[in-house]
């Protein structure tokens, strides 16, 4: 027993070190668009508080500050360590996510080798989602939520219930857009419980019959006893009908009735009020609804529906699931089936949900693999654990992880924190040195608006899409108008320009709008040009 414990501890150390190394390797050095406005909003909140007004565009709009606490945290990190600090913090969050995923998988299955391999594979699939954005922080919270739900149903310990209550409070302040998703994770477990209750009619009926028998024995009133006999006959008839169609557990599905699910439902109901524990008022309850009503989700890449032809990684994951389900006699828990099915639907609706599918469904895949291995080789998992913790096994395991990490890392050390091909680094400096940013009305593109904002240049639009929708600011159609302007979607471009009274335009070298402005040199003067960006000034009439 002591030897097994030491082996498990040794394996955990190897796994955690390997996960940290791999997390460092897959963390991108170059910052993403959202990170720039995150830093600046956090700085603004520290100086002015949550004003519910946007200070960065020149439209004078209301703003919900949907992840204000995360913005403040990242801004503080930036103040301490600059771009390097942001990079290191992203590595740390990625490593924490990987470690929690490994511990979660191991707890659910007690299969350390498969838990380790699947965690590394999951992190590889998540590498495109690793960035200094609020979503990375919430990945950790959702992994913890799943761990706490399973832990509570298994043990009923209060610490898991307390954890479940704190998570929605954190979500309501760190990433309000995903606050409703917290409750979705409860649904598979509640659905399984309700179905188990429905198919538990026979036992319920038996208890009712036993109660009536006791009442008849104790009853002295003949009239009342006759009524009880009549009711008893009906229950016995019902019992016979139930036994004829007695529910049998499906071949592939395990239905487990867990009594603690009733308490879990109460916890979920209590947590609905967690959205009130934020300075954002009712935003946790309204933000997602307003976002779904708007058309930003139809025009932003990560919100578009997923197609398997363009996402081979996800196709491979689904294929593995189907292979285990179809070609083995391994059973899947009903709640797990609901989780996989529900996450699959959400992922096809929005490719952004692929990340949560991986985090939440890999433990289910692990559970199925472990059940399969235990059925055909009970000692295989223990032997593999011993092998991987031997001197040779440790060297081989770490060497493989290092090789994969080096391949994933590539030449990232040569990368800049800000990609000058994507963001107008030189153009921004030119604007600050040559134009009065408080007086101009600058047209800019969606994809680099956040960098301009970061450089304290008032923007026409940036990647906070919700800010520019009529659902959040009445009669404001900036997002729609940007799509029209950038795509040359109207014959009367000048009317659109006059609507916003643009004085200057900054475009990428490949933008359609640049071609339009070049064709009208009598109206638009090119005042700046580099390899990637152009700036035009409207000539006064």
Placed side by side, the strands forming the largest sheet appear as 3-4-6-5
Distance between the termini: 88 Å
Number of strands: 6
Strand content: under 5%
Give the % helix.
55-70%
Residue stretches low in confidence (pLDDT < 50, at least 5 long) are none
- Helix segment tally: 22
Mean pLDDT equals: 87
Q: State the major sheet.
A: 4 strands, mixed
* Number of spatially distinct domains: 3
Radius of gyration: 29 Å
Based on the model shown, name its key terms:
globular; 541 residues; four-stranded mixed β-sheet; two-stranded parallel ribbon
Protein model, in words:
The protein has a four-stranded mixed β-sheet, covered by helices on one side. It has a two-stranded parallel sheet with strand order 1-2. The mean pLDDT is 87. The protein folds into three domains: 2-30 and 64-195 and 259-413, no CATH class; 200-246; 425-538, no CATH class. It contains 22 helices and six strands. It has 541 residues and is mostly helical. The N and C termini lie far apart (88 Å). α6 (158-174) runs parallel beside α11 (261-271). The protein is globular, with a radius of gyration of 29 Å.
């Amino acid at each position: 027993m002591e030897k097994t414990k030491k082996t498990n501890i040794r394996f955990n150390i190897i796994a955690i070190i390997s996960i940290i190394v791999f997390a460092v390797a897959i963390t991108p050095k170059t910052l993403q668009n959202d990170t720039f406005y995150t830093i600046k909003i956090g700085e603004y909140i520290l100086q002015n508080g949550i004003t519910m007004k946007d200070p960065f565009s020149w439209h004078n709009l209301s703003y919900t500050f949907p992840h204000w606490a995360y913005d403040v945290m990242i801004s503080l990190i930036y103040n301490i360590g600059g771009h390097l600090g942001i990079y290191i913090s992203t590595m740390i969050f990625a490593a924490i996510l990987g470690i929690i995923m490994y511990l979660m998988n191991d707890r659910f299955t007690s299969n350390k080798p498969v838990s380790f391999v699947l965690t590394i594979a999951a992190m590889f699939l998540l590498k495109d989602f690793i960035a200094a954005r609020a979503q990375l922080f919430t990945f950790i919270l959702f992994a913890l939520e799943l761990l706490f739900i399973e832990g509570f149903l298994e043990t009923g310990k209060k610490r898991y219930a307390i954890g479940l209550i704190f998570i929605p409070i954190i979500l309501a302040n760190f990433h309000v857009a995903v606050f409703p998703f917290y409750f979705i994770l409860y649904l598979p477990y509640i659905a399984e419980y309700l179905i188990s209750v429905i198919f538990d009619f026979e036992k319920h009926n038996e208890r009712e019959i036993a109660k009536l028998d006791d009442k008849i024995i104790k009853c002295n009133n003949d009239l009342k006893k006759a009524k009880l006999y009549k009711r008893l006959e009906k229950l016995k008839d019902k019992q016979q009908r139930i036994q004829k169609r007695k529910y049998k557990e499906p071949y592939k599905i395990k239905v487990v009735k867990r009594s603690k699910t009733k308490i879990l439902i109460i916890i979920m109901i209590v947590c609905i009020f967690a959205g009130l524990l934020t300075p954002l008022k009712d935003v946790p309850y309204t933000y997602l609804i307003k976002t779904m009503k708007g058309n930003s989700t139809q025009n932003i890449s990560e919100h578009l529906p997923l197609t398997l032809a363009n996402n081979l990684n996800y196709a491979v994951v689904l294929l593995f699931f189907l292979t285990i389900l179809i070609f083995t006699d391994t059973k899947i828990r009903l709640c797990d089936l609901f989780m996989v099915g529900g996450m699959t639907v959400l992922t096809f609706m929005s490719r952004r949900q692929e990340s949560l599918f991986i985090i939440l469904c890999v433990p289910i895949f692990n559970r199925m693999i472990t059940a399969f291995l235990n059925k055909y080789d009970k000692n295989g998992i223990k032997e593999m654990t011993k092998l991987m913790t031997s001197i040779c096994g440790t060297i081989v395991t770490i060497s493989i992880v290092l090789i994969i990490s080096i391949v994933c890392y590539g030449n990232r050390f040569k990368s800049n924190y800000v990609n000058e091909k994507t963001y107008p680094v030189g153009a921004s400096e030119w604007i600050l040195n040559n134009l009065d940013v408080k007086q101009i009305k600058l047209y800019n593109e969606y994809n680099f608006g956040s960098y301009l904002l970061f450089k304290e240049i008032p923007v026409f639009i940036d990647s906070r899409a919700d800010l520019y929708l009529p659902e959040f600011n009445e009669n404001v159609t900036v997002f729609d108008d940007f799509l029209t302007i950038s795509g040359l979607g109207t014959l009367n471009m000048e009317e659109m320009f006059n609507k916003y009274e643009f004085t200057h335009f900054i475009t990428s070298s490949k933008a359609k709008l640049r071609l339009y402005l070049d064709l009208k040199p009598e109206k638009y003067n090119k005042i700046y040009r580099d390899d990637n960006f152009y700036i035009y000034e409207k000539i006064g009439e």
